[in-house]
Write a structure and sequence with these properties.
There is one protein chain. 74% of the residues lie in helices and 5% in strands. It is mainly α and 165 residues long. The protein has a single domain (2-164), classed as Up-down Bundle (Ferritin). The N and C termini lie far apart (54 Å). The relative contact order is 0.16.
């Protein structure tokens, strides 16, 4: 484990993860607009985008508040950078080639599962255990969105199957 800091030259993990959250929020806001014809679907995408923005604010807060001796980096920074780059490419791609709802849901769930270890409770280990608990509690509050996306995917898949059969 490397010791981190909130200075981007020393340890950019907070900035990289904040950018990942921003890109994810952008994608979900786009999906909310793309699927605006179904208010329930659009509302779910919008709610999920807002949750990603909350994660973004958590990383920004941590980056402002904590010194290098307050935490150790538990995530692979190079992997986080690669994911950030791929996510940016994905956002560009879906804007040029809008997916259908089932594809959007499937890819979002896959992406969320891939990004699971890049949330605050996994990215850094704070020296003060109470700080770690605060971030863990904040994250637990809005982890419901993956479950909501899976539930909607099951409904969409069932509807498609019933229409085909």
């Amino acid at each position: 484990m490397k010791t981190g800091s909130n200075h981007s030259g020393d340890c950019p993990i907070f900035e990289i993860c904040a950018k990942i959250e921003a890109q994810t929020a952008e994608l979900y806001h786009y999906y909310s607009e793309l699927f605006h014809d179904d208010p329930d679907v659009a509302r779910l995408w919008h709610k999920t985008a807002l949750e990603e923005e909350n994660h973004l604010r958590q990383f920004e807060l941590a980056g402002r508040l904590y010194r290098k001796d307050d935490f150790t980096v538990a995530a692979d920074i190079e992997r986080a950078q690669r994911i950030c780059h791929k996510l940016g490419a994905l956002v560009s791609h879906v804007r040029q080639h809008p997916p259908d709802l089932e594809t959007a849901l499937t890819r979002a769930i896959e992406m969320e599962e891939l990004l699971a270890d890049l949330h605050m409770e996994s990215v850094v280990r704070f020296t003060d255990g109470s700080v770690q608990k605060v971030f863990r509690a904040m994250m637990a509050f809005d982890q419901e969105h993956v479950h909501s996306l899976k539930k909607l995917l099951a409904i969409v898949t069932l509807a498609r199957t019933e229409m085909a059969g």
